[in-house]
Amino acid sequence: DIKGFVFDLDGVITDTSILHGNAWHQLADSLDITWSTKLGNALKGISRMDSLEMILKAGGKANDFSDAEKEKLATQKNTNYIAEVNKMTPANILPGMKDFLDGLRANGYQLSLASASKNAPRVLDKLELADYFPKVVDPASLTHGKPDPEIYTKGAALLNLKPEQCIGVEDAAAGVAAINAAGETSVGIGDATELAAADMVFSNTAAVTLANIKAKLDN
Ligand code: B16
Ligand code: MG
């Protein structure tokens, strides 16, 4: 029986990817690296330092900076990003997700957060959802990022549940792969082809309801 839900943040509860993208775009411009939407999309679910490496590589500058300089660049991006996050309000919760979370709580499901973002607690706070997620996986504690199952395994462990008692909710293919590898049931939100590995896919957050999930679980 399902007893808990482990949530991704960006692309599931809110759309921070636009803010991440803008902040990285600004940094890329300052380094004379050509930005593209494709590059922005490839960074979804990828950790901060891995994102920086991908951007530098795309710009042919993978070997141009020392580790200390890279840390500085990542901090610069994060400062820009936090300024944008601080403007967020509950209006930035994606359609239907507040009702979904309320329904899960009312039905006694336990919730945890499996976001790669070190800023996740701040984002939850701005969305006024911190109370919903007393258990947040600390991304600094991870050895491997998504698609490695570690973050979803920890998300279930924080709830004292077995993976098979949990549903993971994700918008990125790497995240769905992580949920599956952790042995949890995967709910994908987005393009059915891109997320074909998920146990069930919904095209948008508004379609993600407990009733819709239960109907697909019974099939
Ligand atoms: P930070 P998620 C991820 O969040 C974002 O999708 C990704 O673009 C970002 O680089 C990563 O968090 C790290 O974020 O710099 O705030 O630590 O999808 O795992 O909720
Ligand atoms: Mg995501």
Structure in words:
The chain has nine helices and six strands. It has a six-stranded parallel beta sheet, with helices on both faces. α1 packs across α4. Bound molecules: 1,6-di-O-phosphono-beta-D-glucopyranose (B16) and magnesium ion. 1,6-di-O-phosphono-beta-D-glucopyranose binds next to α1 and α3. Belongs to the HAD-like hydrolase superfamily. CbbY/CbbZ/Gph/YieH family. One of its GO terms (molecular function) is sugar-phosphatase activity. This is HAD family sugar phosphatase. It holds the Pfam family Hydrolase.
Structure summary, number of beta strands = 6
Large-scale geometry: globular
Strand order of the largest sheet: 3-2-1-4-5-6
Taken in chain order, the helices and strands follow as EHHHHHEHEHEHEEH
Bound molecules: 1,6-di-O-phosphono-beta-D-glucopyranose, magnesium ion
Helix run count:
9
Report the sheet with the most strands, covering strand number, pairing sense and barrel closure.
6 strands, parallel
Distance between the termini: 15 Å
Helix content: 40-55%
GO molecular function: beta-phosphoglucomutase activity; magnesium ion binding; sugar-phosphatase activity
Binding site for substrate: 8-10, 24, 43-48, 51, 77, 115-119, 146
Pfam families: Hydrolase
Active site: 8, 10
Please render the helix and strand layout as text.
Layout: E1 4-7, H1 17-30, H2 37-42, H3 48-58, H4 67-85, H5 97-106, E2 110-113, H6 120-126, E3 135-136, H7 150-157, E4 166-170, H8 173-182, E5 185-189, E6 200-202, H9 210-218
Parallel strand pairs: 1-2, 1-4, 2-3, 4-5, 5-6
Helix pairs in contact: 1-4
Bound molecules: 1,6-di-O-phosphono-beta-D-glucopyranose and magnesium ion.
